[in-house]
From TrEMBL:
<dbReference type="Pfam" id="PF00005">
    <property type="entry name" value="ABC_tran"/>
</dbReference>
<feature type="domain" description="ABC transporter">
    <location>
        <begin position="2"/>
        <end position="235"/>
    </location>
</feature>
<protein>
    <submittedName>
        <fullName>ATP-binding cassette domain-containing protein</fullName>
    </submittedName>
</protein>
<dbReference type="InterPro" id="IPR027417">
    <property type="entry name" value="P-loop_NTPase"/>
</dbReference>
<keyword id="KW-0547">Nucleotide-binding</keyword>
<keyword id="KW-1003">Cell membrane</keyword>
<dbReference type="InterPro" id="IPR050095">
    <property type="entry name" value="ECF_ABC_transporter_ATP-bd"/>
</dbReference>
<keyword id="KW-0813">Transport</keyword>
<dbReference type="InterPro" id="IPR015856">
    <property type="entry name" value="ABC_transpr_CbiO/EcfA_su"/>
</dbReference>
<dbReference type="GO" id="GO:0005524">
    <property type="term" value="F:ATP binding"/>
</dbReference>
<keyword id="KW-1278">Translocase</keyword>
<dbReference type="InterPro" id="IPR003439">
    <property type="entry name" value="ABC_transporter-like_ATP-bd"/>
</dbReference>
<keyword id="KW-0067">ATP-binding</keyword>
<dbReference type="InterPro" id="IPR003593">
    <property type="entry name" value="AAA+_ATPase"/>
</dbReference>
<comment type="similarity">
    <text>Belongs to the ABC transporter superfamily.</text>
</comment>
<keyword id="KW-0472">Membrane</keyword>
Length: 264
């Protein structure tokens, strides 16, 4: 559904590339993009969304060549939840914020409100419709941004660090939303530093390092590559590390798997 070919990008014209020669295809597998700060992850998803223009290479979303499409056309295909909610929120009420994108693609007010309220129910903010978003906690602001993007019902949904500032309950809401999107055959891409969350929720994991793809495979395959991950300064999930130290042979991703393996 997304095909990225020979993609390179530099913020300063001919300067040092932030991304070099990226070749990736994305399908319906839930996919985590990981890697240390500055590896180029956010730049990559901004290119997918058409917010930045590739210095070199091509991005195809279905039949769309991203660089030939308008922001409005891309808004119907691809939703991006920014890392920092303050980059996304600008309306005066929670409901208006969630309806904004829908009204912007010329949806009628009645349907837009219905979809917005449904999305706010999903994230547990439906009792705060008339609140000013700036009076919400950081965790709630992030959930509001998620609701605004989910309401758009795009085929592709990208989250940039959704679990930051979330407690267990907030992470559970995000986990459920990702599952729900997957069930609806949406392509879900998530930039994330929380490796436990990655291990528990994503089919595929891609490791970015210094603007290149260092690893790409099933989450289990990727977390089994201890030495390569070290090169990218990525620590496997806590439970995977514990299992390694105890000498368990298989790559363990969850506590349940750990207990099951220990009981053998
Ligand atoms: N607007 C910008 N102008 C110039 N350089 C930028 C800009 N945005 C990001 N960079 C640089 O591009 C590189 C990649 O940044 P990017 O935000 O894509 O990395 P990241 O992997 O998402 O990091 P993080 O995990 O910290 O969000 C970094 O060196 C960063 O300083």
């Amino acid at each position: 559904m997304i095909k990225v070919s020979n993609l390179s990008f530099s913020y300063t014209g001919g300067g040092v590339p932030v991304l070099s020669d990226i070749n990736l295809e994305f399908d319906q597998r839930t996919t985590a993009i990981i890697g240390q700060n500055g590896a180029g992850k956010t730049t990559f998803v901004k290119l997918l969304k058409g917010l930045l223009k590739a210095t070199y290479g091509e991005i195809l979303i279905g039949e769309y060549d991203v660089k030939m499409r308008t922001a409005a056309e891309l808004a119907r295909k691809i939703g991006l939840v920014f890392q920092n909610p303050n980059d996304q929120i600008f309306k005066r009420t929670v409901l208006d914020e969630t309806m904004f994108g829908l009204l912007n693609i010329k949806m009628g007010r009645y349907t837009a409100e219905k979809l917005a309220v449904e999305a706010l129910e999903l994230v547990g903010l439906d009792d705060k419709l008339s609140m000013n978003p700036h009076d919400l906690s950081l965790s709630e602001k992030k959930l509001l941004c998620i609701a605004s993007v989910v309401a758009m019902d795009t085929d592709i949904v990208i989250f940039d660090e959704p679990t930051i500032a979330q407690d267990h309950a907030g992470k559970e809401i995000i986990r459920r939303i990702i599952q729900k999107l997957k069930e609806k055959n949406k392509l879900v891409l998530t930039i994330i530093h929380d490796m436990d969350f990655v291990a528990e929720n994503f089919d595929r994991t891609i490791v970015f390092n210094e603007g290149k793809v260092l690893l790409d495979g099933s989450t289990r395959e990727v977390f089994s590559q201890k030495d390569v991950l070290e090169e990218a300064n990525v620590e496997p999930p806590g439970i995977t590390q514990l299992a390694n130290r105890l000498g368990l042979k298989n790559t363990i991703l969850t506590v349940d798997e750990f207990l099951h393996e220990c009981a053998k």
